[in-house]
């Protein structure tokens, strides 16, 4: 039964597409491993290799996340969150490792008035206008 268990591909909203360039020989090695049944396809090999490297460096990553005080995972900021910060006279300093999401109904002006800095290691989902308004506050 265990041979029939397969990891599901992440949903499109749970992953980010990247492009890499590989040398012909490296790509040939990957294709050989796929052909021999070690991996189901090239993507399976690359995901496995990345996860192995992340596991290998887990302690260093954990310490760095703590040192930089990063929010880990998904962090969503609604219009209400930003309006509450504005009402309190606070500026948000957003630091996320994973996905930072700013609601689509947040205006560029509200974002500028309430977000003092933005540091995202991973992906930022926000409107083009909000990204443009905050570009000088992003690292």
Automatic annotation (TrEMBL):
<dbReference type="Pfam" id="PF17723">
    <property type="entry name" value="RHH_8"/>
</dbReference>
<dbReference type="GO" id="GO:0006355">
    <property type="term" value="P:regulation of DNA-templated transcription"/>
</dbReference>
<dbReference type="InterPro" id="IPR041088">
    <property type="entry name" value="RHH_8"/>
</dbReference>
<protein>
    <submittedName>
        <fullName>CopG family transcriptional regulator</fullName>
    </submittedName>
</protein>
<dbReference type="InterPro" id="IPR013321">
    <property type="entry name" value="Arc_rbn_hlx_hlx"/>
</dbReference>
<dbReference type="InterPro" id="IPR010985">
    <property type="entry name" value="Ribbon_hlx_hlx"/>
</dbReference>
């Amino acid at each position: 039964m265990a041979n029939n268990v397969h990891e599901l591909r992440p949903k499109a909203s749970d992953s980010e597409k990247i492009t890499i360039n590989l040398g012909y020989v490296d790509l040939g090695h990957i294709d050989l491993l796929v052909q021999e049944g070690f991996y189901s396809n090239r993507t399976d090999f690359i995901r496995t290799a990345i996860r192995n490297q992340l596991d290998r460096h887990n302690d260093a990553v954990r310490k760095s996340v703590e040192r930089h005080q990063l929010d880990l995972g998904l962090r969503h900021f609604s219009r209400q969150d930003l309006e509450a910060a504005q009402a309190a006279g606070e500026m948000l300093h957003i630091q996320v490792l994973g996905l930072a999401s700013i609601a689509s109904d947040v205006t560029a002006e509200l974002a500028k008035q309430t977000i003092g800095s933005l540091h995202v290691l991973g992906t930022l989902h926000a409107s083009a206008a909000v990204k443009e308004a905050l570009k000088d506050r992003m690292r």
